[in-house]
């Protein structure tokens, strides 16, 4: 196995066992309940407890800090499996692990010892708080400010669309510590901010899909975060810390895309053999057969792109282009497969009695989160030119 700095060794047998346990858990404890929880937009407390027992909150945290120490390759397979059953569940540990990854990769040793064991066992859970009401893509334009005051920084501002914002205990918080410096990214710093006085959840955000997981607006009013929680202990590195998590974040979202695209394909493969029109199962109509072929091809291509990006990540190679391609292709595949699944299912695709309508509501988020697909195309093109300059 590879030796990336984020990975401890795991044998193929251990990986198979882990994926088998997760598969059994998904079949027994998640699949029978996911549809209702999604429709009710209920945070899945029991499943979160089970995910803690399975070690998912520590999946990519090194073993010396209490995690499973998995590399991106194994981790992406877990995310695919979970997302095939209920994508929202993956968000509960994915965003948490991006926060953990910032501490693991860029934190001081003291910060790693203080936070990572509690992140790994899920006693301290959270997410990533970057986006603000008037900026998402252009993170250098954030306005939430942190001003040093003794041993603390005093924080004022608003973050929005924060996954795990309500049920989480803390966030990796991107703040402006210098409003005048040029280039603007040198004025950004990232902190681990635990909930406390001055840190409030102002509202739960209602969404088209991605139900069950909480998305929230967070308001900071004279909130004091200890200077000891400034990741890496040095101001001005927040943009680099954010960018450093993007490759894993994109592999992660791409894996969710493979999961949703696969679920849509499986539902369609099965339904098209059961549903009959004009005296034969609908898969025997060429119009439907072509859809199935395209859906299956998209799933396989997306899976291979994710595998390629994860392997590159685990080997420690720069993989922004590979992760960008995987994210772009796999998330568009999820959206296309979800749409085609709905067409194949006819009226039943539109019904809340099946899961197809959920795939159709969940998939578009994947094209927006972790860098929109418009931005992925820009990154891919830029890298293409850089790697092939004449
Ligand atoms: C359900 C959900 C969960 C989320 N979870 C989190 C979270 O946990 N933490 C967090 O910080 N954020 C989260 N987000 C926010 C998400 O990361 C942002 O929505 C995303 O980064 C896009 O930002 P925006 O919505 O402000 O769009 P904008 O940046 O305003 O972009 C609007 C449009 O313009 C395009 N565009 C922007 N700039 C360019 C450019 N330079 N070139 C070409 N096109 C461009 C975009 O692609 C998009 O089509 C979440 C969002 C959703 C919907």
Question: What proportion of the residues is helical, as a percent range?
Answer: 40-55%
What is the string of SSEs from the N terminus onward?
HHHHEEEEEEEHHEEHHHH
CATH class of the largest domain: Mainly Alpha
Order of strands across the main sheet: 2-3-7-6
Question: In CATH terms, what is the architecture of the largest domain?
Answer: Up-down Bundle
- CATH topology of the largest domain, what is it called? Butyryl-CoA Dehydrogenase, subunit A, domain 3
Low-confidence runs: none
Annotated CATH homologous superfamily of the largest domain: Butyryl-CoA Dehydrogenase, subunit A, domain 3
Structure classification? alpha+beta
Question: What's the alpha carbon Rg, rounded to whole Å?
Answer: 21 Å
Domain count? 3
> How big a fraction of the residues is strand?
5-15%
Structure description:
By secondary structure, this protein is an alpha+beta fold. It has three domains: about 10-120, Butyryl-Coa Dehydrogenase, subunit A, domain 1, CATH 1.10.540; about 125-240, Beta Barrel (Butyryl-CoA Dehydrogenase, subunit A, domain 2); about 245-385, Butyryl-CoA Dehydrogenase, subunit A, domain 3, CATH 1.20.140. About 55% of the residues lie in helices and about 15% in strands. It contains ten helices and nine strands. α6 runs parallel beside α8 (about 320-345) and α6 (about 245-275) runs antiparallel to α9 (about 355-370). The longest helix has about 35 residues, at about 70-105. The model has no long low-confidence stretch (mean pLDDT about 95). The structure holds flavin-adenine dinucleotide. The site of flavin-adenine dinucleotide has 22 residues, from β1, β3, α9 and α10. Flavin-adenine dinucleotide binds near residues 161, 163 and 215.
């Amino acid at each position: 196995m590879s030796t990336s700095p984020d990975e401890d060794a795991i044998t193929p047998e251990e990986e198979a066992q882990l994926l088998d346990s997760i598969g059994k858990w998904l079949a027994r404890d998640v699949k029978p309940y996911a549809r209702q929880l999604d429709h009710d937009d209920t945070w899945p407390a029991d499943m979160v407890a089970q995910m803690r027992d399975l070690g998912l909150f520590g999946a990519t945290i090194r073993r010396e800090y209490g995690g499973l120490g998995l590399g991106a390759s194994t981790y992406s397979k877990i995310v695919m499996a979970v997302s095939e059953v209920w994508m929202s569940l993956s968000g509960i540990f994915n965003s948490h692990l991006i926060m953990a990854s910032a501490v693991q990769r860029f934190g001081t040793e003291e910060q790693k010892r203080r936070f990572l064991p509690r992140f790994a066992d899920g006693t301290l859970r959270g997410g990533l708080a970057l986006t603000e009401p008037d900026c998402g893509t252009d993170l250098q334009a954030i306005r939430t400010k942190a001003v040093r005051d003794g041993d603390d920084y005093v924080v004022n501002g608003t973050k929005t669309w924060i996954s795990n914002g309500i049920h989480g205990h803390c966030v990796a918080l991107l703040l402006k510590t210098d409003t005048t410096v040029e280039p603007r990214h040198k004025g950004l710093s990232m902190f681990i901010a635990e909930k406390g006085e001055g840190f409030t959840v102002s509202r739960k955000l209602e969404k088209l899909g991605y139900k069950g997981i909480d998305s929230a607006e967070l308001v900071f009013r004279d909130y004091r975060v200890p200077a000891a929680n400034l990741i890496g202990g040095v101001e001005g590195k927040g943009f680099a810390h954010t960018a450093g998590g993007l490759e894993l974040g994109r592999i992660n979202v791409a894996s969710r895309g493979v999961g949703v695209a696969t679920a849509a394909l499986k539902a369609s493969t099965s339904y098209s053999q059961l549903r009959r029109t004009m005296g034969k199962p609908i898969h025997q109509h060429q119009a439907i057969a072509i859809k199935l072929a395209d859906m299956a091809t998209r799933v396989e291509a997306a899976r291979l792109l994710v595998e390629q990006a994860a392997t590159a990540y685990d080997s420690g190679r720069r993989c922004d282009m590979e992760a960008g391609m995987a994210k772009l292709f796999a998330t568009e595949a999820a959206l296309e497969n979800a749409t085609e699944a709905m067409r194949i299912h006819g009226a039943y695709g539109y019904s809340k009695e099946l899961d197809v309508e959920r795939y159709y509501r969940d998939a578009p988020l994947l094209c927006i989160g972790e860098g929109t697909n418009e931005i992925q195309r820009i990154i891919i093109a830029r890298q293409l030119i850089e790697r092939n300059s004449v």
